[in-house]
Design goal:
The complex is a heterodimer of chains A (258) and B (436). Chain A has a domain of 176 residues: P-loop containing nucleotide triphosphate hydrolases (Rossmann fold, 3-Layer(aba) Sandwich), CATH 3.40.50.300. Chain A contains ten helices and nine strands. In chain A, helix 4 packs across helix 5 and helix 5 packs parallel to helix 6. The longest helix of chain A has 16 residues. Chain B has 436 residues and is mainly alpha-helical. In chain B, helix 3 packs antiparallel against helix 12, helix 8 runs antiparallel to helix 11 and helix 13 crosses helix 14. Chain B starts with a helix and ends in a 15-residue tail after the last helix. The chains are: A alpha/beta (258), B mainly alpha (436). Chains A and B meet through helix 5 and helix 6 of A and helix 9, helix 10 and helix 19 of B.
Chain lengths: 258, 436
């Protein structure tokens, strides 16, 4: 798929290479995300999934290449982009309530040196309620379960009121209640025409959760609609020898269902 | 050594101009250090303040060698310059592969301090007796503070407070989640520089009062103490400022009463005292509170175990019957002493009564309570079995009543499942759930 930085394309990545300490992590990535879809970014550990997101958001330097959001560079498109980092990337013992964290999603729209206004807090509260966490608004964040913390992060991204969302492993280590809350939320975002890119680990749920997939292993192995691209051959190419274990697991599950 | 009553009252009432100056100076220093320290502490930059303060020494000595002057603003300027150089050195070293932050801080701190000591020895050879004033920068001597010095501290403290309040929202988000802040367009690097600038200002004006070895304590200890009392960042910042003020005030007052005590050390010890009190005595996060919580939880659990065991034994005996203490002892892993302690408590609460020298029975009210506990316990067990996937996030272990946590339909479903699961026929005594 050629990435020509079209204005109609929510995220277009052109010829992007990222390297840490001279070791390349991502090679020559060319990708144009389709508008209004749920897109899964799939690949083994160390494939550069998180790096892909972080490079798009200018959080790690790119060795080469460019990324555009609806044809604009990140600096100009920032308010249209929302981000859910990995849950483990912060210290949850920080002195803040769930509402405090969600309100941070509004900071990008509040001028410097001005505290959050009442309407920002109200919107943050609505976002918390949307992920089913309204009653935990005043609770200190370390007293929330892992799944609840993840939902707080999602609510913070909702408060950003963005067009394009990047989510880094929102499903990792969450309980079933949170998982279904996230899925509900993703579908809601899609119905509003938002584009969501999600780093995802669990291969079994890929076909049910995502319309499109990006199969990644330091380079793009395959992209496209899940039905066409999420095939054993492509997965084999993405995961290499490691997939055999997964395949056996998947077969076992399929057997059990029959 | 011990001061007369007259001195005592004169000091506490700030009757002397000199005492007023010193106490005001150290108190304002404490406020500024506590407030900016809160952010440095949460950003895990607190030890950077230590590298910074040690790195000011060569600047102080160099200014003295070059200008031959002990003019304070000039010395502080030299301190600032070499302190900033030290901070930059730490930041630069951190970028070198295989040098971690702690190593970078250790290297800069000791090398700059060493350089300062070497320069000091040159000062000593230059003019005898003149270097005495410079030593206050190492150990601190608040008593030497002049009115003008207090004004410098006041101005700095004011600037630090204004900066911290203005950038509160920005500091909060970079302390919690740097990547997210940056993705939103918050200039993390600029804010870090601003934060370090506030730390530098506070440290440099604190040198004279507290000394470069101990000034970092005022940046770290008040926020660490404040963290025990609250989970709210704004309140924590205010509390840290208050603890800093308290330390500065009490330290200066004490050393005014006993002039041979080094002010800096006394201020730090006062801060340490505030920390100790907070760590032990804070209501939720404090050590004593958490030990008490553990203890009362253990007592409560033991009591519930006793009542549940008696209810189960009655159930097995198909009717109210006294239970032997020996049989109770075998049922659970408690020692004889623990068992007798919990029995004493249960008797006092009139939930059980002695039915002989070595046998217990449930009282009427105890039976109601025990039956309820047993039912609750089984419903929770059933819930964990039936809803193993979602249960852990919903189970509130503090909740006594299933109904308080789970919705009514689920409770009813669990009750049905519970009845179906019992292979043995229901006991003759009332099985239905007591009204709640």
């Amino acid at each position: 798929m050629p990435a020509d930085h079209s204005r109609a394309c929510p995220v277009s990545i052109h010829d992007m290479t990222v390297a840490y300490h001279r070791r390349p992590v991502l090679w020559d990535v060319d990708y144009a995300a389709p508008q209004g879809q749920l897109i899964g970014i799939i690949g083994p550990n160390g494939a550069g999934k998180s790096t892909l997101i972080k490079a798009c958001l200018n959080l790690v330097p790119k060795a080469s290449g460019s990324v555009r959001f609806y044809g604009e560079p990140y600096g100009a498109a920032r308010q249209r982009v929302g981000y859910v980092p990995q849950r483990e990337s912060v210290d949850w013992d920080f002195p803040a309530s769930a509402l405090d964290v969600v309100t941070m999603g509004r900071y990008g729209r509040i001028p410097w040196c001005i505290p959050p206004r009442r309407r920002d807090k109200r919107m943050a509260m609505e976002c918390l309620e949307q992920v089913g966490m309204g009653e935990y608004a005043r609770r200190q964040i370390s007293k929330l379960s892992g799944g609840q913390q993840q939902r707080v992060f999602l609510a913070r991204a909702l408060a950003q009121d963005a067009q394009i969302y990047f989510m880094d492993e929102p499903f990792s280590g969450v309980d079933a209640a949170t998982e279904s809350a996230i899925v509900r939320l993703l579908r809601e975002l899609k119905s509003k025409g938002r584009t969501v890119l999600v780093v995802h680990h669990d291969l079994q749920t890929v076909p049910t959760y995502f319309d499109h997939v990006v199969l990644l292993n330091m380079r793009i192995v395959a992209v496209g609609p899940t039905k066409e691209v999420f095939t054993p051959e492509n997965l084999q190419k993405t995961y290499g020898g490691r997939l055999t274990i997964l395949e056996k697991a998947a077969e076992a599950v399929a057997e059990g269902r029959r | 050594m011990s001061p007369s009553w007259d001195t005592f009252f004169r000091t506490l009432s700030l009757a002397d101009h000199n005492t007023r100056v010193v106490v005001a100076g150290t108190t304002m220093l404490g406020i500024a250090a506590g407030v900016v320290g809160t952010f440095a502490y949460l950003r895990r930059r607190a030890l950077m303040g230590d590298a910074l303060s040690h790195a000011t020494l060569p600047g102080v000595a160099a200014v003295f060698i070059i200008f031959g002057s002990k003019h304070l603003p000039l010395l502080l300027l030299g301190a600032t310059l070499s302190g900033v150089l030290g901070v930059l050195a730490v930041l630069g070293l951190r970028r070198v592969p295989r040098i971690k932050e702690d190593a970078a801080i250790g290297i800069v701190l000791s090398v700059f301090f060493g350089a300062g000591m070497v320069l000091f020895s040159i000062v000593q050879q230059m003019r005898t007796g003149q270097e005495a004033g410079l030593l206050t920068f190492i150990y601190g001597k608040a008593a030497a503070m002049l009115t003008r010095d207090a004004w410098i501290i006041a101005g700095t403290a004011g600037a630090v407070l204004v900066g911290s309040i203005a950038l509160f929202k920005e500091f909060r988000v970079i302390c919690f989640d740097q990547d997210f802040a940056q993705s939103q367009g918050t200039p993390v690097f600029v804010l870090d520089v601003a934060m370090m600038a506030l730390v530098v200002m506070t440290t440099v004006v604190g040198l004279q009062a507290v000394g470069l070895i101990l000034v970092v304590a005022l940046l770290i200890i008040p926020p660490a103490a404040a963290r025990f009392w609250t989970d709210d960042l704004a309140l924590m910042t205010v509390l840290a400022g208050a603890f800093g003020a308290l330390s500065g005030w009490s330290g200066a007052t004490l050393s005014a009463l006993m002039p041979r005590l080094p002010t800096g050390a006394v201020i730090v010890l006062c801060a340490g005292g505030a920390f100790l009190v907070s760590m032990l005595g804070a209501p939720h996060r404090g050590v004593i509170a958490s030990v008490l919580r553990q203890w009362s939880l253990r007592r409560k659990i033991a009591y519930q175990h006793l009542l549940r065991a008696l209810a189960e034994m009655e159930e097995a005996a198909l009717g109210p019957a006294p239970a032997g203490v020996g049989a109770l002892e075998r049922r659970r892993g408690w020692t004889r002493r623990q068992l007798h302690e919990v029995i004493r408590r249960a008797v006092r609460r009139e939930a059980v009564a002695w039915a002989g020298p070595d046998a217990l029975r449930l009282t009427a009210s105890g039976r109601v309570e025990a039956t309820r506990m047993l039912r609750n316990h089984r419903l929770w067990e059933m819930y964990l079995i039936k809803y193993a996937d979602i249960a852990p996030s919903r189970v509130d272990r503090d909740a006594d009543e299933v109904e308080h946590v789970l919705s009514e339909p689920i409770v009813r479903e669990l009750e049905q499942a519970l009845d179906a699961a019992r292979a043995i026929p229901p006991s003759p005594h009332p099985q239905e759930a007591p009204a709640t």
